[in-house]
Write a structure and sequence with these properties.
alpha+beta; Rieske Iron-sulfur Protein; Naphthalene 1,2-dioxygenase Alpha Subunit, Chain A, domain 1; 2 domains; 7-stranded antiparallel sheet; 4-stranded antiparallel sheet; 31% helix; 23% strand; binds FE2/S2 (inorganic) cluster; binds fe (iii) ion
Length: 427
């Protein structure tokens, strides 16, 4: 009892510290250092952000056929996504109904039934308990179904929420994104390549780094072939007259191109659902610079078989979410998800999707397809590690965001503060 009281008061003290750190965040600035470094903050982030919000976890191509199983770890928890015999894609907590053993290791497998490695309880892919040896004739298998996880398929991208009361505004993501993603027909893609890298930084630094291109010109020579220097904001006072003329011409081109795409039935205008919401996201169809087709070394399509019905020269539909960033192009899609592993460790998972009939070496060259984002991810990982080293240093003070180029990460951190406050970590 005494021990329990001690735990409770420790928990209360930790909660008060986190709440005071959150309350100390100055608008327009980074978070106080402890929110990027403390073990108790990491645990609170898992409980609040990762266990109570919708996370991008997979794509339909992870489970293309009946019997396919794909397990994804989210913090301390894990979910198992299956395609059952009726082709329904489902998700369950990756926890056996007997004594709780993890059922399936992270990654892909093909099964007839989900069989627990511990005492061999076997589950149908619908989650129904099929057999439980030595539990007696009176044992009611019907009471021991696998616990379902809320799952939404938004145009081929699978979102899951571990909470029993998932945020309802996933409907808004679906409303905006399903029509945008329809033309890419992601259900009929396959994963041409996949990488997992562990970045040595807090997950919020990974997202902060992702929400701006302030760092792109100096750090991403490969990606910048397909991006415009002024695509992600600029201070007009810093541009030379010729740069200013270029930026104005690009803004004009965006207005005309966006209208033309929309008229052709391709939703393109920016939609921001970033603060004052539970399920944050931003999307826009971006014009690809240079040859204008894809994020490859020469900005031309890497894959000769187009995705769905979009065709070449239809830009890059970018989609940012709580734990993901995605680029859908005419010839391939890059889907990136991230999952926190520790206060200063984050898993970044990248999948390159091509049309399911595309054959490596015939329809696409793997290096051409993957080289830009392989390089970009490594460059970003190096930057995130530098940022983590900084936030855990004695001299760190939360610096200001540029209102011209870092609005999106200001919005993200504002969202984080809002969500933590809404769940009991407010002032
Ligand atoms: Fe799964 Fe016992 S814990 S069968
Ligand atoms: Fe970057």
């Amino acid at each position: 009892m005494l021990h329990q009281l001690h735990d409770l008061s420790e928990d209360g003290a930790s909660r008060a510290v986190i709440a005071s750190l959150i309350g100390a965040r100055e608008p327009g600035h980074m978070l106080p250092a402890g929110l990027y470094t403390r073990a108790d903050v990491f645990e609170a982030d898992l409980d609040i952000i990762f266990h109570q919000h919708w996370m991008a976890v997979a794509v339909e191509a992870d489970v293309p056929e009946a019997g396919d199983v794909y397990a994804v770890d989210i913090g301390r928890s894990s979910i198992v996504i299956v395609r059952d015999e009726e082709e329904t894609v489902r998700a369950f907590h990756n926890v056996c109904s007997h004594r709780g053993s993890r059922l399936v290791q992270a990654g892909r497998s093909i099964v007839g039934k989900l069989v627990c490695p511990y005492h061999q309880w076997a589950y149908e892919l619908t989650g129904d308990l099929f057999s439980a040896p030595h539990m007696g004739q009176d044992f009611n298998k019907g009471l021991h179904h696998l616990k379902p996880v809320a799952l939404r398929n938004v145009g081929g991208i699978l979102y899951a929420c571990l909470s029993d009361t998932p945020p309802a505004d996933i409907d808004e993501l679906d409303r905006v994104m399903a029509p945008r993603l329809a033309a890419y027909d992601l259900a009929n893609t396959r994963i041409a390549y996949e990488t997992d890298i562990v970045e040595n930084g807090n997950w919020k630094l990974v997202i902060e780094n992702n929400r701006e291109c302030y760092h792109c010109e100096a750090n991403h020579p490969e990606l910048c072939v397909s991006y415009f220097a002024t695509d992600f904001g600029f201070d007009p006072a810093d541009l030379s007259p010729s740069e200013k003329a270029e930026a104005e011409a690009l803004a004009d081109r965006y207005a005309r191109q966006t209208a033309a795409w929309e008229e052709a039935g391709l939703p393109s205008a920016a939609v921001e659902h970033t603060v004052g919401v539970a399920t944050n996201f931003r999307t826009q169809r971006l014009i690809i610079a240079g040859a204008g087709e894809s994020q490859t070394p020469d900005a031309r399509a890497a894959c000769q078989i187009p995705l769905g019905t979009v065709g070449k020269g239809t830009g890059d539909t970018h989609l940012w979410g709580i734990n993901s960033w995605n680029h859908m192009m005419g010839d391939h899609a890059v889907v990136i998800t991230m999952f926190p592993l520790g206060p200063d460790k984050t898993l970044v998972r990248t999948k390159w999707l091509v049309h399911k009939d595309a054959v490596e070496g015939v329809d696409y060259d793997l290096e051409t397809l993957t080289s830009v984002w392989l390089a970009t991810n490594q460059q970003d990982a190096d930057l995130v590690a530098l940022a983590q080293q900084g936030v855990q240093s004695a001299g760190f003070r939360p610096g200001p965001y540029s209102r011209f180029t870092e609005k999106q990460l200001d919005d993200f951190i504002t969202w984080y503060v809002e969500r933590m406050s809404a769940h009991g970590y407010g002032r």
